[in-house]
Every structure is written in C-alpha cells, then in structure tokens.
Amino acid sequence: MLDVLNTFNFLPIAELEVGNHLYWHIGNLKIHGQVFLVSWFVIALIVGASVLATQNAQRIPSGIQNFMEYALEFLRDLAKSQLGEKEYRPWLPFVGTLFLFIFVSNWSGALIPWKLIELPEGELAAPTNDINTTVALALLTSLAYFYAGFRKRGLGYFAKYIEPTPILLPIAILEDFTKPLSLSFRLFGNILADELVVAVLVLLVPLFVPIPVMMLGLFTSAIQALVFATLAAAYIHEALEGHGEEEHD
Predict the structure, then answer these.
(1) DSSP class of residue 157?
(2) Where do transmembrane segments lie in this chain (predicted)?
(3) Crossing angle for the helix pair 131-153 and 33-55, nearest 10 degrees?
(4) Cβ-Cβ contacts under 8 Å for 51 (sequence gap 6 or more)
(5) Angle at CA of residue 168, ends 167 and 169, nearest 5°
(6) 27: phi > 0 → left, psi -120 to 50 → alpha, else beta; which?
C-alpha cells in the first residue's frame, strides 16, 4: 500500500498542505502572500470581464456583455428579494461584489490547477480556502449591517439590544458575535473540505472517480457563494428594519 501511495507522490495536483504558508514580510507586518496572489487574480478576472462587457456595449447584447447583464440581473433579484424594492439599490454593489468574489474564488480553486505552480513555501489555492479571507469577508458584512442600522436609525439602532427587555442584552450581543463566526466558518469549512476530498481521491483513484466529486464541488461552491451573499443581505435588511418594525410601502 505504501508503494502505491509513493507512486502518486509525483503528482503535485494531488497534494494539499495544511498550515504551511508563504508569507511576505513588510517591516514588522507579515502578509499571507499566497492568498493575496490568488485574490488579485480573482479581482483582475472580475474587473477584466466587466471592462470587456462594457467596452463596446450594444443595444442588443451578445457574448460576454449578455453574460454580464444576466449576472447583474441575477444579483439585482437577489438583493431585491432580501432588502426590498426601496432599500436594495444602495446595497447592490456590496452584495453583488461579495457574491462575485466568493463565486469566482471558489470556482478558481476547483477548476484551476494551482498546485502545479510551485512556491518557496505552501501552495496556491482558492482564497476562500483560507480562514483569514472568510473571516475578513464576514467582518465586512458585520460592519455593513452595523453601518446600515446606525445610518437609518441613529443611536436608536442600539435600542434593539434591550428590546423587549434588558435581560436579553447578553443574548443580543452574543448574536452579533455568532453571525460573522457562522458566516466565516461555514464558507471556510465547506471549501476546505471539498478540496481535501478531491485531493485525496486524486491521490488514491486518479482517473475517473474524482470527476463526479469535482462536479459536485462546483455546485457546492456556487451554493456557498449564494448562501453567503443572501445572509449578508438578510442581516443588512434586519438592521435597516429593526426588531418588530414592519416595512411600509
């Protein structure tokens, strides 16, 4: 059995290192280099697609313009369904950017053989495969819904912590801590688990068995991006409307 495993050790695509990272040192600051590299690639891909789609816009869209307009329509419907007709427009860029970044990051990890690119330390992978990225996205979401609530209702926003009784104050504070934790660990855990499963299957059965799992991983990656963006929009809507406050058309 050991001989069989050693036979596949030459396949870099089947290796997955956990805890070994490439760091850049800028003064006293230590930066996670491999995450930044793939994140910049993802951002460049999204910006490049947007530029190509709008460079020569046609009244009757086709090609990449048609695809990007479909993506915009999907994101508009997503934000509108969670935030309502009146409130969704200012938050569409934030919710849409979250979805696109997570979606492209997840699929880049599933479709691009990053492990073929050798680094001095660690290996390239989807940015969402790293807990630092998912926590940063979750904290941005937390800041967004705090900002939304405070901007809409001022200091009255914090009254929700003592409604309907001040006894619930610790529970309300705990809820605000659990929201970013659940967002970050759900995304991180699912993406890391998917890459680990595919890596192990490629190592053990490198021909046909991993393909269905990889297809399932693509579907799961898309669902995770949708869940994250939907929950972010739902949290912002909750902050805007407040507890027990009904939306009036």
Answers:
(1) G
(2) 31-53, 91-111, 131-150, 187-209
(3) 60
(4) none
(5) 95
(6) left
| Consecutive H or E run containing 138 | helix 131-153
State pLDDT tens for residues 169-196: 778 778 777 888 888 888 888 887 777 7
In the block, which residue shows the tokens 């407040």?
A: 242
The tokens of 39 are what?
Answer: 């994140």
Q: Are strands 29-32 and 23-26 parallel, antiparallel or unpaired?
A: antiparallel
Cis link prior to 164 (omega < 30° from 0)? yes
3-class SS string, 170-222 = HHHHHHHHHHHHHHHHHHHHHHHHHHHHHHHHHHHCCCCCHHHHHHHHHHHHH
* Residues 221/194, Cβ–Cβ less than 8 Å: yes
CA distance 148 to 213: 40
What is the residue extent of each domain of the chain?
2-241
The pLDDT tens digits for 150-176 are 888 777 777 777 777 777 777 877 877
Q: Spell out a b/e string for 167-199, using b for 16 or more CB atoms within 10 Å of the CB, else e.
A: eeeeeeeeeeeebbeebbebbbebbbebbebbb
